[in-house]
Amino acid sequence: MKFFGGKKSNSFLGVDIGASSIKVVELGIEKGRPKLLTYGYSEYRGSEQHLSPFEDVKGTGTLLAEICKKAGSKSVVAMAALPTSGVFSTIISIPAVKDQKEQQRLVDAEVSKLTPLPIEQMITYSTFFDGEKGNEKKDQKKEKQPSVEKTQQKEEKNVRVLVTGAAKTLVQKYVEIFKVAKLSLQAIDTEAFALTRALIGKDKSATLIIDLGSQRTNLTIVEKGIPFISRSMNIGGDTITRRLQEQMQFSFTEAERMKRDLGVTSQTQAREETLPPLLETFIQSLLNEIRYAFQLYANMEMAQQKNVEKVILTGGSAHLPGIPHYLSKSLNLNVYRGDPWARISYPEELRPVLDEVGPRMSVAIGLAMREME
């Protein structure tokens, strides 16, 4: 999915602008496979007061330029992603028509009933995911029916459309940020599509992606590569840090360091099955939201599979101990930590550091992979 596009380049730069950090990944192609060229990131540390990246467009653009310079990225063409919390997304069904103008009119008419803003104030993108082949097969199975009924069914054939949109004012801020950074926007994608690309690939099973960010946790249920459910919770890694800060009487910086050390330690010791008491409240809130998302998905008329088969964790807090095991036991599903580097070649000696930073780079990696599809 993209909101606009431009000319292609030899390397591919994915830029993830988050609430508390900016991540950049540059990929090339080697023997038909994505190859890591460089990466970089910058985070707002501790209790440091800062404006939203979209409130400080000039500062965000300047910081992005500095990250690219330090990382040594070569591409001046980049892909970005809109935050899940700022994206409108819906799946609609419209009659199958061949005329593109009539098709768009039908889409706009349905979507205008649902958008939080007047559709004239939004930029939208439509993804059609029902091909005519499937409809032809359905007709062939009913060849013995009377010709009048066959004609009526043909007229009633529908296609499903994923419509994604965002306010023009938000999109314009992205354009301005990249202009300050002296980068050209190849496309503006969504986090949901970027994560699907990086963590799921061509797997068609119904999968829940949980992106544990610093300020928000995003849930995305993907079926056959299409995000059917996208929800955003106003809790994240900072919620855990603040609780640790209160319990231990630490500064925010000290509590954040302890939380990260906890995640690193869990990777090197056999502590994956134990959920620290610190995480219990956070996980219970997360479980409630997951079960609600599952219920929404099961009740969606447009969905075909209805039941989620597995769960993938990503984001900066995905390394915290006990979470995969606890969620797996509570949901009776396989829960994995996603590996966004799995389909990318890189020097083996970088593996330890890439494993550590990988979860927080998933969106940027998925963006860099977009033009390789």
Map the helices and strands.
Blueprint: E1 12-17, E2 21-30, E3 33-43, H1 57-71, E4 77-82, E5 88-95, H2 100-111, E6 122-128, H3 132-140, H4 147-155, E7 158-167, H5 168-180, E8 184-190, H6 191-199, E9 207-212, E10 217-223, E11 226-233, H7 237-248, H8 252-268, H9 280-298, E12 310-314, H10 323-331, E13 334-337, H11 351-357, H12 362-368
Parallel strand pairs: 1-4, 4-8, 9-12, 12-13
Antiparallel strand pairs: 1-2, 2-3, 5-7, 6-7, 9-10, 10-11
Helix pairs in contact: 1-5, 6-12, 7-8
Task: Characterize this entry briefly.
The protein is an alpha/beta fold. The chain has helices at residues 57-71, 100-111, 132-140, 147-155, 168-180, 191-199, 237-248, 252-268, 280-298, 323-331, 351-357, 362-368; strands spanning 12-17, 21-30, 33-43, 77-82, 88-95, 122-128, 158-167, 184-190, 207-212, 217-223, 226-233, 310-314, 334-337. Strand 1 and strand 2 form a beta hairpin.
Detailed description of the structure:
- The chain has 373 residues and is an alpha/beta fold.
- Among the domains are: 77 residues, no CATH class; 137 residues, ATPase, nucleotide binding domain (Nucleotidyltransferase, domain 5, 2-Layer Sandwich), CATH 3.30.420.
- Helix content is 37%, strand content 25%.
- The strands form 3 sheets. The chain has a 5-stranded mixed sheet. A 5-stranded mixed sheet has the order 11-10-9-12-13, with helices on both faces.
- The longest helix is centred in the last third of the chain and has 19 residues.
